[in-house]
Amino acid sequence: TNYIVSVDQFSNADVLHFIKLAQAFKHGLTVNLKRPAFAMNLFFENSTRTHTSFEMAERRLGMQVIPFDPKTSSVTKGESLLDTLRTIQAIGVDLAVVRHPQDAYYQPLLDADLPMSLINAGDGSGQHPSQSLLDMLTICEEFGHFDGLKVAIVGDLQHSRVARSNMVLLNQLGAKVYFSGPATWFNDDFGQYGEYLPIDDLVSQVDVMMLLRVQHERLTQTNNEAFDATTYHQRYGLTLARAAKLPAQAIIMHPAPVNRGVEIASDLVESPQSRIFQQMTNGMYMRMAMVSHILVQRGLLDAKTLE
Ligand code: CP
Fold first, then answer.
1. Which domains does the chain have, with CATH numbers?
2. Domain Aspartate/ornithine carbamoyltransferase Asp/Orn-binding: where (predicted)?
3. Measured at the alpha carbon of residue 187, what is the angle toward residues 186 and 189, in degrees to the nearest 5?
């Protein structure tokens, strides 16, 4: 395919293919493009990890990265996202990586059948396929398999595109998913992917404790005013006391950015069981895998070089 927008596109074989490719890049695989290729990263929502690691991945694959700043672009004059992509396509951009606050913003772009390639770097509370693949890489590196692993996804489920992507892939790959956090943030649509339990019932039995950031930018003003970080941490967070009950082999994950002392005790971010910074490193290699896959699809890279 010419686009990667949702984990629904991936079979288990696809996920394992991306993991293998990311590991090859991690072990030093380099590639040569057949002609100059151009990427543009269009971030309509703030980002540190995803934006930086896509740009690093594109550069390491030999692509040239054309800057785009929404605030100084003609989007401010009312130009639509579709017309923006038509424009950069006409100018010669091969790959657009887009993050946007609107759920499924990418659908009209796919319907328009643009010849350029598209990777979704996060849509509202919809999907975050590159985060999900880097999380699968991190889990696979740790345990060597997914079958029967117990994974708790804990926190602001309602707003989390990471939860929505990971619950699908983890189920598909044979892991057992649990959810925790405020009950009002557990939507009915999560039920088919895992059981909802209090965090105290989960800490002593999980292989992966995956915390989610409380997304204050998506909460209403009333809910933000009513929010108390200390109360949240004690009721729903991974406190030091709860972390002490994790099995020895269990790992702590968080897509980050982290609200230290809210969903996770600050000291746990750098604890021996934390894989939070490894997730970020893996993110760059996984994005190299995703972008190189697209480059092969576009005939810009010989598939044999990825074997
Ligand atoms: N995990 C993640 O998507 O982080 P950024 O918002 O900083 O890209």
1. 3-128+280-306 (3.40.50.1370), 129-279 (3.40.50.1370)
2. 147-292
3. 130
